Amino acid sequence: MIKIKSLQMKLMLIVSSILIFSGVIITGFSIYNANNGFSQMSYIAEDTTIGIISSKDSNGLDYIPALPVQDAKVIKEQFTCSSIFYLFIIIILGIVIAFIAISKAFKPMKELNKSIMHVDAYNLSMRVNECGNDDEISQLARAFNNMLERLEDVFHMQKNFASSAAHELKTPIAVMKASLQVLGLDEKPKLEDYKENKEVIEQQVEKLRLIVDDLFNLTSGMDIQFKEEIYLKAALDDIKQEFINLGITNDVELILQIGDIVLYGSHNLVYRALFNLIENAIKYNKIGGNITIYTVVNGELEIHIKDTGTGISKEALDNIYTPFYRGNDTRGLCKNGVGLGLSIVKNIIDKHKWIINVDSKLDVGTEFVIKVPKQDFKNLI
């Protein structure tokens, strides 16, 4: 059995079938009715003639000679043959007209298909012609162009991300290589030289570890449970103690004004997001400054993280969630980090379908606000 793949040919087959079926039915009924008429006329024939009554004048009726019955049969056969002949003519003309009309209707579709075939990962900026009509094909072309725009943005972001990640990975590797080369220049290096190079390499290995961990957290596609109970105050107390244990508080006071609130989400991810925000606030704070974390419940929950640090410039504020972004001001330089902390925060908040906003003034401080919808938290007070 031949399988027709072309949509145009399938439509042509359907239209032709309907046309042939309708033509045969109509012609069949016409021939049937005509044959019945001729048969009834032959029944009323007198001898070899058919009497046809005709009004001649006001005095009465006359019989006029009619066609022989044999001639009526010939006419019947001629009518049948003519009907079948015209049926074929009409079907052929109908199929030709339908083919022309369908081909014209499918022309924009073929052009659209041809344009789509030329689109690949290297020319996502290409757009297909949307024609001028507001028909289904035009709507399809418009939807395809919108999809291309989104794909182009995503590919551009991935390209920049990969380039930035490669650059960040390249730097510590280059430092370690240079350190080993310097050590190799000395035929009899001293113990102090080994210790110095060991410290340099350890620092760069730790930086590589941080980069890899952050990249994994940022791009992880693993299944995540978003219905775990997270006791906000307990989580923040743990984060505060962790910074104290790590000795990276920089004499910054962490003030917690947290209600008795339970969040519903991924415990590890939320912990990571809060940790990154507080770590960022510590890094860019002033010596002896403070970080205030407080909550506001007004239908939804707001978690405020406010510092007294250096602030963020307008340029850096617009790009604050861009991976590896490096601005001109101190806050945008990924100080003691790899530039992925806030990108990870934004990714985590988006995964939970929460909202994060930021407000900052240079030399005054920065405030991040996480907004949690009412179905994702419970106030125990």
From TrEMBL:
One of its GO terms (cellular component) is plasma membrane. Residues 103-156 form the HAMP domain. Residues 164-376 form the Histidine kinase domain. One of its GO terms (molecular function) is phosphorelay sensor kinase activity. It catalyses: ATP + protein L-histidine = ADP + protein N-phospho-L-histidine. This is histidine kinase. It is found in: Cell membrane.
